[in-house]
Amino acid sequence: MRILPRLQRLLGTDGKCFDVAIDHGFFNERSFLTGIEDMRQAVKTIVQANPDAIQLTPGLASLLQELPGKIKPSLVLRTDVANVYGKELPRTLFSRMIERAVEQALQLDAACVVVNLLLLPEQPELHAQCVENICRLKPQCERYGMPLMIEPLVMQANHQAGGYMVDGDIDKILPLVRQAVELGADIIKADPCDDVRDYHRVVAVASGCSVLVRGGGRAPDEELLERTYAVMEQGAAGIVYGRNVIQHQRPTQMTRALMAIVHEQATPRQALHILQEL
């Protein structure tokens, strides 16, 4: 892994990271707004829990960066917007990158930028757009020393799953993760696989690139904590969770419980105790 100063800010001294994603409003999907209707309050709540990073969009990143003080979560800036998350897919799909993405990231003092690598059934044009986005973004990142997080996202057929459902088939995840690495990722944000015991294969195919595991849709507390522990034990460098934090009744306690697993090797039982603390 290359030594990038901003990457050190993101990963920390132990090389681990918990990034809380609250960039969902970028995608024009009503269900994604649950828990983040008031973004100023949502950011404040997550900052108080002190994760390693918060993932935001250009329009709302200032809610984090305007907070006073030297110590706060690092900013991961979302650089692309897509229309693939609804229950019914539109006639034309797109994935578009914001203009001057790295310059905007520098102006906002981001530690990293993130971009999608989408793979939907029978949508090769969408995949090609994502590859083009990455190919345009990578040289900018190299020029300015900005770490590039690529999110290889394999999705189920919309007519089968009813919108934004991860396909956990490891035989689809592995080649897409490798493609992301080959395109120049400094960090991978990868899907969980159907059998969590296989996650070491995702870490291996990333060939030394740090792998952060996506949270996906809402899951029961015990299931989420157990899955997080399992992927960390298999070599993941951390997690990127959004709805499982921001839509939780106790987002601050959930953040602290997950941080304990990521950084302190807490067991699911220990993490559950943190979550249930008054």
Describe the structure.
The chain has 278 residues and is α/β, with parallel strands linked by helices. It has a single domain, classed as TIM Barrel (Alpha-Beta Barrel). Helix content is 41%, strand content 17%. It has helices at 5-11, 39-49, 62-65, 101-107, 124-144, 158-161, 170-182, 199-205, 221-233, 243-246, 251-264, 268-276, and strands spanning 17-21, 53-56, 74-78, 80-82, 95-97, 112-119, 148-154, 187-190, 210-214, 238-241. It has an eight-stranded parallel beta barrel with strand order 1-2-3-6-7-8-9-10, surrounded by seven helices. It has a two-stranded antiparallel ribbon with strand order 4-5. Strand 9, helix 9 (221-233) and strand 10 (238-241) form a beta-alpha-beta unit. Helix 9 runs parallel beside helix 11, helix 9 (221-233) packs across helix 12 and helix 11 (251-264) packs antiparallel against helix 12 (268-276). The mean pLDDT is 92.
